[in-house]
Amino acid sequence: MHIDTLEKQWAQIVLGICALFVGIIMFDALIHSVNAPSNVETIDSAKLHLSEEFAEDNLGVQQDEKGNIMVRMVAGRYSFFPKKIIVPAETKITFRWVSIDVLHGVHIPMTNMSTMIVPGFVAQLDTSFPKPGDYPVLCNEYCGLGHDHMWSKIEVMEKDQWNLSHLSSADTNGVTENE
Ligand SMILES: [Cu+2]
Predict the structure, then answer these.
(1) Measured in angstroms, how far is the CA atom of residue 99 from the centroid of ligand 1?
(2) Distances (CA, A) of 174 to 84, 88, 95, 146
(3) Where are the domains of the chain?
(4) Which of 126, 132, 135, 144 shows the shortest CA–CA distance to 75?
(5) pLDDT in tens, 139-175
(6) How far is the CA of 145 from the centre of ligand 1 (A)?
(7) Can you identify the CATH homologous superfamily of domain 41-173?
(8) What residues sit around ligand 1, an ion, with C-beta below 5 angstroms?
């Protein structure tokens, strides 16, 4: 079969572009751990307050005996609850998000945190904050008239300081011990 030289060159350019895109996706997935959320877990969104895990007292930051940090958050029109949490920088943190009403999204700039929060499902993601500071938590799925105002804040502390504040102010700031 005869293929024109010019056509061959264009085919090579197209294949090259495809290879570049696949390369970028692989690089982000393997090096920056930017992956599609893969946790599938259901929950009754209408009964979150009655559920053991997402009852009000249980929200926010918790740390188990091994030192693993888990954050449980509820999204509802038009905020994320608890309104403010404090976590350490440069530490792996597991976030579990649920919605109390409609579809929401959560995006935290400078991290890999960007996922939908689908009612009826638990969105779980591991992330870490590169440096101390205030990080905005933004809803990136249109959820109603107040969507523009749907945001909250995560305060990220120096790793060493966080341990101290965690011990000294256990019951404030939404920081509690895990039973
Ligand atoms: Cu929203």
Answers:
(1) 11
(2) 8, 14, 15, 25
(3) 1-34, 41-173
(4) 144
(5) 999 999 999 989 889 999 998 888 756 554 444 444 4
(6) 9
(7) Cupredoxins -  blue copper proteins (2.60.40.420)
(8) 139, 143, 147, 150
